[in-house]
């Protein structure tokens, strides 16, 4: 699952993979802003994603593997436990949602450079 979500992040426009917190945490950024963190060495693999606050609560209520963001703003971030219980389609959609939220927050004149086609 680690390689799959890593590739999903890296296939988005102009994403960079960084390790500002050390080699145990991969951080994915667009335009220098973080949209995902991946902790591959934990079992299960954990991933933090930005999320609309109302939707974040709905997802936590619906899925046991979606928790408030670990070491992040609980209002705007969720932690996904990638233990195989979440549908792959949902994980992909949540990665794209997080990316889109960050792109939408960029100044209008640079936003077009990062939007998904």
Radius of gyration, taken over Cα atoms and rounded to an integer in Å? 13 Å
Domain count: the total is 1
Classify the secondary structure makeup into a structural class.
Answer: alpha+beta
CATH architecture: Alpha-Beta Complex
- Main β-sheet, in a few words? 6 strands, antiparallel
CATH topology type: Aspartate Aminotransferase, domain 1
Question: On the 0-100 scale, what is the average pLDDT?
Answer: 89
Distance between the termini: 25 Å
Read across the widest sheet, the strand sequence of neighbours is 1-2-3-4-6-5
The run of helices and strands is HEEEEHEEHH
Task: Summarize the SSE layout with pairings.
Elements lengths: L1 H9 L4 E4 L7 E5 L2 E7 L5 E6 L2 H10 L3 E3 L8 E6 L5 H17 L3 H4 L6
């Amino acid at each position: 699952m680690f390689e799959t979500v890593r590739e999903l992040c890296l296939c988005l426009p102009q994403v960079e993979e960084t390790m500002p917190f050390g080699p145990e945490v991969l951080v994915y950024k667009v335009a220098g802003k973080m949209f995902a963190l991946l902790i591959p060495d934990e079992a299960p693999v954990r991933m933090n994603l930005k999320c609309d606050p109302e939707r974040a609560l709905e997802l936590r209520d619906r899925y046991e593997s979606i928790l408030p963001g670990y070491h992040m703003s609980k209002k705007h971030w969720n932690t996904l436990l990638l233990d195989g219980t979440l549908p792959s389609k949902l994980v992909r959609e949540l990665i794209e949602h997080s990316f889109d939220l960050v792109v939408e927050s960029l100044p209008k004149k640079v936003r077009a450079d990062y939007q998904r086609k």
